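Milestone M4 deliverable, item 7.
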Amino acid sequence: MNFNVNGIFNPQNRFWSFIEKIVNLCVLSFLWLLFSLPIVTAGAATTAMFQYTLKLARDEEGYVWQTFWKGFKQNFVQATVLWILMAAAGAFLVLDLYCCQFLPFPGTVKWAARVVLVSLLFVYLLTSLYVFPLAAFFRVTLKKAVVHSFIMAVGNLYVSVTILVIYGIFAVITYFLPEFFMVWFTIASYASSHLFGSVFRKYMENDIKTEL
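Output delivered:
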């Protein structure tokens, strides 16, 4: 068996490429946290994060800071509005679900209302998974970002559920190791970016212009 010592220290081998990706994701996680701290900028920071992870999934990542900062500036207005709209919609649905228990109606009506609201929350959750990655990948209007996110989420349901499971797994990890929550979120987003990319490429031949 031939053993090449130089191969171990070759920066192009798989081990060092893996280490480089982990380091870049850690740097990316801190950038995401830092730029999300004002809360209102969380949407722009998340879009910028996906701008990098989608490229990383295609081995076209470039430099972390340059890619992140470019994505943050380019998508700031649209991503911020999307963030506010999605947060408001989610809060509205959760509040409605909570208020169901106080409705002066028979139990059957309350149960039916809960089923409808839970179904809407599930669709909302799946749609929200796609909004920021889609805004990072495509140049679309605000309306199309929401509409296409819904279409892709529902039209690729098995992929959407898989992505949801990925985030669920890392949510469990975060529960036990909350100190590194931003790292787990970024790693989950990178893992999901492979699936997002496969879905997005199916729509690239349509009238949506790509950003990457």
